[in-house]
Specification:
alpha+beta; four-stranded antiparallel beta sheet; 4 helices; 4 strands; globular
């Protein structure tokens, strides 16, 4: 799996509802990144529409199941902070994937 679009399709085909529009609306959730290393992505959630966005690092299995968050739910105040933490936690802060993700060129 290489893209969020593929992740959504696999999840749906296997009975998952994480990416359903109704679920995303209910939790005021938004996908904030592409799929990183075929497994990780960042979401934002807010309790109320006027609350600030908070960011979570998510993991997805090859079967499209959402696994435990990598860290705490809504752990990060910024998308940049979540991406940097993902890089640090995966030991790839110098990795080629991080720069394109942060600059929007990847």
């Amino acid at each position: 799996m290489n893209t969020i679009k593929e992740a959504k399709a696999i999840s749906k085909a296997n009975g998952g509802h994480f990416f359903d529009a109704q679920s995303m609306r209910f939790f005021n959730s938004k996908i904030e990144s592409e799929l990183i290393e075929g497994r990780y992505f960042i979401t934002s959630e807010r309790y109320e529409l006027d609350s600030p966005k908070l960011f979570t690092i998510r993991q997805i299995s090859e079967a499209g199941q959402i696994l435990d968050d990598l860290g705490k739910f809504q752990e990060f105040d910024t998308l940049h902070g979540a991406l940097v933490a993902l890089g640090e936690r995966k030991g790839k802060i110098e990795g080629a994937w991080l720069s394109p993700v942060l600059t929007g060129t990847g």
